Amino acid sequence: MATDAQQKVPKQLLGDIAKADQAKLNHVDVDEKVQLPSPEVIAQEKQEQELKEKVQNFCKDNLKHTVSVEKNPLPDQDVIAQEKQEKALKDSVEHFDPAKLKHTEPEVKNPLPDSDVINQEKKEVELRKSVSEFDKSKLAHVEPEEKLTLPDTEVIQQEKTELEKKKGIEQFNRRSLKHIETEEKNPLPSKDDIDLEKKCCK
């Protein structure tokens, strides 16, 4: 009995194959390749398998009971008032009567500049042109004069005094200072002062 593959092949081709000389055919070794999955595919399949096992072995007792809170989907008064205002505005625009509009003649203004602006622009163009076309050969060579500004006698004397003061402070000998004993005075009132205050209070 012919297979499905043989039925699809034309009979003439099958006859030619059967009559062919097998000695003229080339021997071909069949190379069987095993297509192994990559590490990424293996890791992904492992992760999917673990997830599937967790879902199948999940304990429903760990779930907490939650009471559903039904919220009122109806709009509040502010939203209703806003919607009414928008609807009224939309209706007024849709049913607006253009006949109520007043006819206005458009005023065409001359956008051209006046004579003052033209003269000013003309001066700027001429100035820019004179700068760009200026002949540098007409300039006279000038040697720069370097002036050395020295301080006057008052400034020199002031700097000298400050330098001597600074030097005197830096080279000051603390051993030349004299030791002074601190004298503590009693701020309490005397007996006469107390008696006098008592008399005043009486």
TrEMBL record:
Compartments in which it is found: Cytoplasm, Cytoskeleton
Residue ranges the record marks as coiled coil: none
Residue ranges, compositional bias (Basic and acidic residues): 86-108
The keyword Cytoplasm belongs to this UniProt entry's keyword annotation: yes
Annotated stretches, region: Disordered: 86-121, 175-202
Entry keyword Cytoplasm: yes
Chief localisation class: cytoplasm
UniProt keywords, alphabetically: Cytoplasm, Cytoskeleton
Record's GO cellular component terms: cytoskeleton
Family: Belongs to the thymosin beta family.
Protein name: Thymosin beta
